[in-house]
Amino acid sequence: MSAGILLGLGLGGFFDGIVFHQILQWHHMATSAGYPAHSLSNLQLNVMLDGLFHAATYIFTVVGLTVLWHSARKQHFKWSARLLIASMLMGFGIFNVVEGTINHHILGLHHVNETVPPDQWIYWDAGFLILGAVLWIGGWRMFKSEQVKTRT
């Protein structure tokens, strides 16, 4: 379970950083915290912060792979793709809920979609949290149902 959660955290971070920061360019790490990407110096700072963010998600992914590798080498380890997918969904959801709560709502570092008018940011931020909760709960339910199946 811990390997899947760590992998899900890493993949959730990579999805956010690659899709929202780079491809869609909806926001960067500190675009709402007084560093909008309208000047070269602000863009440089945001790209550096985005890189640190990606480094953290890379660490989650590497640690998750390491835990999975060590677990898989144990004699009693029973493979279950559904358990791994379920725990990865939980990790992805946890990423959305924690990152969204802290960065979007508490610290106000950035918002999910800053290309829309500011009065609409809350809808995108709330949607991000709702998606995270759905992934987290869905992964948890899938994990629990699969545990029951593997015990019988």
TrEMBL record:
<feature type="transmembrane region" description="Helical">
    <location>
        <begin position="51"/>
        <end position="71"/>
    </location>
</feature>
<feature type="transmembrane region" description="Helical">
    <location>
        <begin position="83"/>
        <end position="102"/>
    </location>
</feature>
<keyword id="KW-0472">Membrane</keyword>
<protein>
    <submittedName>
        <fullName>DUF2243 domain-containing protein</fullName>
    </submittedName>
</protein>
<dbReference type="InterPro" id="IPR018719">
    <property type="entry name" value="DUF2243_membrane"/>
</dbReference>
<keyword id="KW-1133">Transmembrane helix</keyword>
<keyword id="KW-0812">Transmembrane</keyword>
<feature type="transmembrane region" description="Helical">
    <location>
        <begin position="122"/>
        <end position="143"/>
    </location>
</feature>
<dbReference type="Pfam" id="PF10002">
    <property type="entry name" value="DUF2243"/>
</dbReference>
